[in-house]
TrEMBL record:
CDD domains reported in the protein's UniProt record: S14_ClpP_2
Major subcellular site: cytoplasm
Regions of compositional bias (Pro residues) in chain numbering: 1-13
Active-site residues, as the UniProt record annotates them: S119, H144
Span list, region Disordered: 1-30
EC number: 3.4.21.92
GO biological process terms held by the UniProt record: protein quality control for misfolded or incompletely synthesized proteins
The family this protein is said to belong to: Belongs to the peptidase S14 family.
Function: Cleaves peptides in various proteins in a process that requires ATP hydrolysis. Has a chymotrypsin-like activity. Plays a major role in the degradation of misfolded proteins.
Protein name per Swiss-Prot or TrEMBL: ATP-dependent Clp protease proteolytic subunit
């Protein structure tokens, strides 16, 4: 009998806990509203140097956002870029591609949390240029550690577990650098899902300002 080929392990992710487990049962999916806006809306926003992350972070959305930022930086390396985030999280590797692009370009990147900035969305929100990280009043922010499914041979499981441990340490270090908290504090706080209101996110160091109107930013 042929030996079945093992399925590849899924990528590391920072998925958000479903809202109906932590909040009232009514859910408003960020991803559901994006297709209806149409590409023309996002193209018009780009002319104002506005980039929108309004869905789960995957390779396609990460490549789109990174490409938009690189284009805007090439057009004007001194003008700010505004990144609006309403995301339940997603792939760690794809999210880090966006984060590295934010650091790579010469422009300041102002980040705005709206609705939900969870998991990898939280990391990107707090990765904005210091002093230019904003959150709208009713935004929910979620911080937790990366997760991944692990399967296969014992050796593969050990390798995967070590990679997950390193990912956890890396993400804790990034969040610590962005917030001013110690890495030990982050490791303790994101061991389980931890939710923040806009004001709590400000106090923790994820953002610099809570704003209700555009003129306040």
């Amino acid at each position: 009998m042929p030996v079945p080929t093992p399925k590849p392990n899924p990528p590391f992710r920072m998925p958000a806990t479903p809202l109906d487990q932590a909040l009232p049962p009514t859910r408003m999916s960020a991803t559901a509203s994006v297709p209806g806006l149409g590409d023309s809306v996002f193209e018009r926003l780009l002319t104002h140097r506005i980039v929108v992350l309004g869905q789960e972070v995957d390779a396609d959305i990460a490549n789109r956002i990174a490409g938009q930022m690189l284009l805007l930086a090439a057009e004007d390396p001194e003008a700010d870029i505004s990144l609006y985030i309403n995301s339940p999280g997603g792939s760690v590797h794809d999210g880090l591609a966006v984060l590295d692009t934010m650091r790579f370009i010469p422009c300041d990147v102002a980040t705005y949390g709206m609705g939900l900035a969870a998991s990898m969305g939280q990391v990107l929100l707090s990765a904005g240029t210091p002093g230019k990280r904003y959150v709208l009043p009713h935004t929910q922010v979620l911080m937790h550690q990366p997760s991944a499914g692990v399967g296969g041979k014992e050796t593969d499981i050990r390798i995967r577990a070590e990679l997950l441990r390193r990912n956890k340490e890396e993400m804790a270090g990034l969040i610590a650098a962005h917030t001013g908290q110690t890495q030990e504090q982050i490791l303790a706080d994101f061991d389980r899902d931890r939710w923040f209101t806009a004001q709590e996110a400000l106090e923790y160091g994820f953002v610099d300002h809570v704003v209700a109107r555009a003129g306040q930013a």
